[in-house]
Task: structure prediction
Amino acid sequence: MSEIMNNSGVFFALLGAAFATFFAGIGSAIGVGKAGVAAAGVLSEDPSKFGKVLIFQLLPATQGIYGLLIAFLVLSYTGIIGDPATVSMEQGLLYFAACLPIAFAGLMSAIHQGKCSVAAIGTVSKKPDQMGKALILPAMVETYAILALLVSILSVFGIAKM
Amino acid sequence: MALQKMQRINIYALLKYCKDILETLQRRSVIQIENVNIEDSVFFKEDTGSLQSSYRRSADIAKKASDIINEYVKSKKSLFSTFKGRKSITTDEYNELVESSSEILKIAYDIINFKNNINQNETEIVKYEAQLEAIKPWLNLDIPMTFTKTATTRAFIGVFEGERSEGDLLKALAEVCPDVDGIDIEIISSNENQTCVFILCKLSDEQTVYDSLRQIGFSLPQYQSKVIPKQREKEIIKHINNRKGRILENTNNIIEASKYLEKLNFLEDYFIMKAERYQVIDNISTSNNTFILSGYIAKDDAADLKKYLEEHYWAEVELEDALDADTPVKLKNSKFTEPVESVLATYSYPDHKEADPTSIMAIFYYIFFGMMFSDAGYGIVMSIACAILLLKFKKMEKGLKKSIKMFFWCGVSTTFWGLMFGSFFGDAISVICKTYFNVEAPSIPGVVTPIWFNPVNDPMRMLMFAFLLGIIHLFVGLGIQAYNDIKNKEYLGVLYDVISWYLLVGGAILALLSMDMMGNIAGFVLPPVCMKIGGYMAIAGAVIILLFSGRDSKNPVKRFLKGAYGLYGATGYLSDILSYSRLLALGLATGVIAQVFNQIGSMFGTSVIGVILFIIVFVVGHALNIGINALGAYVHTNRLQFVEFFGKFYKGGGKEFKPFKINTKYFTVKEEI
Result:
């Protein structure tokens, strides 16, 4: 019984990992999907722009990967994969909280980065030489996913050391 | 690190040398030709519009023909064809090709004709196929569809909607015209959509029967064949086969002509080149025997060209330093920093009044890219790949070559930071040692253990280092602003716009670092005296900004308000510095994702299949990680340069120097010197 109580945080840690992957993943899926539709439209006119539009389509993909990264860290620190470890209730809840920034900032920023990518694909289709500028605009949105990732990473590292 | 000094060049020469001089200029590609606006009783402009458009039309024809060939003959385009660059031909080959240009143009026309013929036949096939479809239900009819009457009978050939049986129709007909008899109905074919019928009645009842039939839904078929349907079917099939034969013939002709593809490409280049040369003539003024040409040239190239033109063509060349605002900008950088010019170009060329930031930017560019990508394995892969491309494809286009060179240096930097942080394909070596040999990895500095420290274990230290680099980056940016101010002799600007911010931001940082609260985060605390010094510095800076950043306004209230707004810009510095935290975040992302793949790979156990699976996961996973994180590092390095760094000093808006040159797509002509 006491063992179960000692290890009861695992559920919340896992919930956090799930949140991080699935919310950030949903965001990326929507964003990449939107950009992909626009990219395919451009390709129908000019297949030689494949390399260029592919980059734009990939931009919103990073949030899902950041989510995966946090989830993986949590999974390995809580012993769900790799060496077994005990996770108290308190720690589990902390892990859960640590996952929230990338889960939600990832979700929203990926969707909006996707929209921005769609517009940037339009720019590149008309003015291929403006690639550099067009790339910066969606990258601006990503900043907030990066900040969330930073907070999530630092929190997870901090909790693991506790 | 500089913009090249530009000169305005005017060339006066005899008209008979005009063509030769233009060719020389086009080959040397050192002059950007500007419009000479002299039109008077002596000088006039030659109208070459019609010639130009006829050359462009020929180029279009050649392009169209080569497109057609490419449509029919799958050329073996290798993955690396983008790197190959243009094919070079000798002057002899060039002259030979020029001589046969009218012949090649004729071939181009032929190819286009073949294609038109194919299109025409394809349309006809579609038409015949529709007829074939229409005639199908009537195949059982053994008389022509246009048959109407004999001496005593009247026949109706037509369709009813839906599936109807003979009885049905007779019954329906009897209801409408009960008095008529002797109607014979034969169902030719029927399906759920329509029923095709042959109806026979007495000639005397013709009108009544026809009206009644119309009432119960009879209609004439849309397509009627004048011969017996079966025979018509045969005819149509013959027609189709005939057309198919012609298509095949023309297709073969096109495939046959595909050996001229290179020549067609040459033709396109040749006519475009010619058209461009004539376009330049629009910009020069000619008199009956002389012409004037004007443009910009880099000072380094000027003397050489002047000498050449004067010796060979008796031309008079006039040079003067170009100082006007429209002067185009040509960058000149060392081999190490030059590749980053292409990044600068995507933002904007520097105004000719400001310094070219390429060289300073390049150093930070490589450092930041390396820190974000930060894996020795990935860096080595990237550098080697770029080096191979550079060595193998020497004729690569200039722009592409610059980019590849840039990624080569980025790879070197990535390797360096990877060694510093102890990341080599993540933790690949420790994982392999642990999983397959059951030993701890030997501590090889750089590859297994970090030379400096591992950011995963000590992220705060890394964060502080990122901020430090960020502050240096921003301050260097401010420094360039100071340089520009001095260059333009606005010495007070240095104090008001640069030193003030050094004081404010530097002082604030000093004060912050001597607070206990920040000490917990940074891991060290400066002595309290720094608090005082920092405070005074910040106050001095703030006062200067408040008083002088609105110095352009004469109205004191407005000036003060502008100053206050300028001071508000301090929040911008805060967000700018925090923005460098992406160096940590992206660096960690690369490292941790690499570890994830290593761990997933090691989960399959130590059997042979396990090892194979490990290799697959390793290769695919790390390739994926390289792709996505190299993209991330590239994009975010650009962002740090464009937004944070350029925001401090860079105005841009300069015009790129675009020399008059040979603008070919497929070929370059080797010069004989």
About this structure: Chain A has six helices and no strands. Chain A touches chain B through 31 residues (CB under 8 Å).
